[in-house]
Request: fold
Amino acid sequence: NGVVDGDENAKIVRVSKIEEGKEGSITFLANPKYTPYIYTTNATAIVCSKTFVPEHPISSTLIRVDDPYSSFTKLLVFYAKEKQDKNLKGVSRKARIHRKAKIGKNVYIGDFVSVGENVEIGEGTKIYPNVTIYPFAKIGKNCLIHAGSIILDSCEIGDNCILQPGSIVGSDGFGFAPIEDGSYMKIPQTGNVILKENVEIGANATIDRATMGSTIIEKGTKIDNLIQIGHNCQIGSDCVIAGQSGIAGSTKVGNNCMIGGQTGVAGHLKIGNNVHMAAKTGVVNDIPDNS
Reply:
């Protein structure tokens, strides 16, 4: 839905940052502080705002859109799919697949993957080397499970989810009961984790299983690297949680929340919809909608 200002027949073969643009690449201008580069870049085409007014001559073709950032993101999604290794097919002979596991069509399973009893893996999913999937786990269609990830028993991964390297879904919740002699007795964690569709879990992030019931991450939520989600938490849809944040057990987070890096949220709280937290926020009380 862009308006081309320049050569409509220009050939694009790669994407680039605006300051590193080369012939054949397409880039974008969304942040005003990068405006000087639009006059010096060698990129063939630039996605920019419909309201952008040049102050100097521009050699590149402009594609004018309402929102350059989201439009270029869509181009990156398309580019990534084209670039994806389409040769990743079939099951490696070095993988260990339980005879009772159910594997869908067009699934890729890499070297040294372990798939347990009664695991279900949906059509088109790609599982990279050294992934461990415990018994009775379910993985939906067209997921990407990157190297070194672990999905523990009975956890459920929805369609189109991405687990970055080293992510752990379903580790035990941090539950210990103090006893009379001053020591702690481990509370068995008998629940699971449910990731709805289009969820992404960052590298080395950990989503703990529920003590009873389920820890739930709703559809479209994106969780950055090195994040801890405690047992029995419920995270709403289309939330973004930045790196090194932690959310303690049994807290409920609403939809469309933005949580900055290194934020800490105490347990058993209720965070409303459309809540924005700046980096290093400490939360010890409930927060209403639209805060």
About this structure: The chain has one helix and 36 strands. The radius of gyration is 23 Å. The helical segments are 68-83.
